[in-house]
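Late entry, evening session. Most of the bench is empty. Finally got around to the prediction I had been postponing all week. Sequence below, unchanged from the version circulated by S.P.
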Amino acid sequence: MKTILLVSISILTLAVAAFAGVKPSDASLKGVYGFNSAKPQTNSWWAQVSCPNYTGTIGAGSDTSTPVSDGTFTFDGKGDVTFSFYKYGQFDQTLSNETVQWTCDQNGNPIITNNGYAVYDAPVAESGSGTYTVNSDYTGVLNPSGGGSSSFVLRIAGTNAKGLATTVFFHELGSDNHSSDDGVAIKQ
């Protein structure tokens, strides 16, 4: 019994030592990863009014919501990625503004008679492609193709015995370097 236990521990130690030399690289991300991300935000809606004593915008209401996206990334292990996902709970500014009701009082000033409400779009399917790099410190960057897309900072949070990432955290990096959309991807 002791011999079997010692042999098992020795084999396990050799296996761990053999894989300890695997260095993170673009090849660390390969295959399909299911993901979910969330982006908390405050939404406001308003009315464009025109009364004898005031013409302009009047705030009517606000709320806080957390739009989410879920879908898949497919990494090729060589720096290219494709993705497809659904976006849920996207705030519709135009339709929300249209829910506000107002009138002019007898003095020519605007009065909000109904503050309206937030309107959210139906789920929307999106897809695309891009490139990615993985650094030796288990961080990386994903750059979607096409103008105007934000970059995503990647952090590999777990790997399997072959050095493939099993868990990846990602953060959308806004134009002013703040993280505006955070999520996690899990190897499928």
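Two things to note before I forget:
Residues 22-187 form one domain.
The radius of gyration is 25 Å.
Will write this up properly tomorrow.
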